[in-house]
Design a protein that fits this description.
By secondary structure, this protein is α/β, with parallel strands linked by helices. It has helices spanning 12-22, 40-52, 80-89, 100-103, 123-126, 130-145, 157-169, 199-204, 207-220, 225-238; strands spanning 7-9, 29-34, 55-60, 94-96, 149-153, 175-179, 242-250, 265-273, 276-283. The chain has a six-stranded parallel sheet with strand order 1-4-3-2-5-6, with helices on both faces. Strands 7-8-9 form a three-stranded antiparallel sheet, covered by helices on one side. Belongs to the pantothenate synthetase family.
Length: 284
């Protein structure tokens, strides 16, 4: 267990003072942006950050601009005490915990226009507000913390590609690093939203990952992509999901794959069981 609790900053002056302390002796800094409700997937990001830099900053901020009015901003789990204890155990150096009034003060009027991976017809088709909200909060966090590296999970794969593109295009500075998906023993991708699943839904939820594994196996064997994706979609819906998409895409651009096996591929899916929307992806 870590010998001391992390520094906690909730104002910009406190953040800057804390960062000056961390950066003494030219220490490198990694940022792990989160919305709290930390699980083992988040902890894996923290551990990767510790391998990539001398000091680790974790931000905890439930970002209102990436939620549509009908989505779960108000009910999104907020577990500060548990989160802080977990980060202390992992030896995190600083927690950046701003509130919405600091991040979006009265009169805030700036947005970031996104194309490329943000308009791939995946999450953007079903949550058109989402990446605009992600882009502005990530840009602000990178400007506030000025990390050398920032860690994002591969579970939100399109988000990872959007953030990577934006950071490169705007010369924001840090290297963006993707961390592998962490899964429960039955294959379900770890997510804060898994807490919403009823016992029956939690039992059924791993069918999403099982179906995707089957699709990837058949695609790698050279089966017809359209027929394989159609069959995979049926497996998912038969398990009780409402499917938003099941798509084979180029792993970097997220454009439709022209030839399976000839270019890096990623299978991406989003589906709702009950009222809980789950996303997942796998390398093809």
């Amino acid at each position: 267990m870590a010998s001391s609790s992390p520094l906690v900053a909730r104002t910009l002056p406190a953040l800057q003072r804390s960062l000056e302390t961390l950066r003494k002796r030219h220490a490198s800094v990694a940022l792990v942006p989160t919305m709290g409700a930390l699980h083992d997937g988040h902890i894996s990001l923290v551990r990767l950050a510790k391998r990539r830099a001398n000091k680790v900053v974790v931000s905890i901020f439930v970002n209102p601009t990436q939620f549509a009015p009908h989505e779960d901003y108000g009910s999104y789990p907020r577990t500060w005490k548990t989160d802080a204890a977990k980060l202390a155990t992992e030896g995190v150096d600083l927690i950046w915990n701003p509130d919405a009034a600091l991040m979006y003060p009265e009169g805030f009027a700036t947005s970031i226009h996104l194309e490329g991976p943000a308009t791939a017809g995946l999450e953007d088709r079903f949550r058109p507000h989402f990446f605009g909200g992600v882009a502005i909060v990530v840009a602000k966090l990178l400007a506030q913390v000025r990390p050398d590296v920032a860690i994002f999970g591969e579970k939100d794969y399109q988000q990872l590609k959007v953030v990577t593109q934006m950071t490169r295009d705007l010369n924001l500075g840090p290297r963006i690093v993707g961390a592998p998906i962490m899964r429960e023993r039955d294959g379900l991708a770890m997510s804060s939203r898994n807490l919403y699943l009823s016992p029956e839904q939690r039992k059924a939820a791993p069918a999403l990952h099982r179906s995707m594994k089957q699709v990837v196996r058949l695609l790698r064997q050279g089966e017809d992509p359209a027929a394989t994706l159609k069959a995979g979609a049926k497996l998912i819906t038969d398990a009780g999901f409402k499917l938003d998409y099941l798509e084979a895409r180029h792993a970097e651009t997220l454009a439709p794959l022209s030839q399976i096996g000839r270019e890096p591929g990623r299978l991406l899916a989003a589906a709702t069981i009950g009222t809980t929307r789950l996303i997942d992806n796998m390398k093809i």
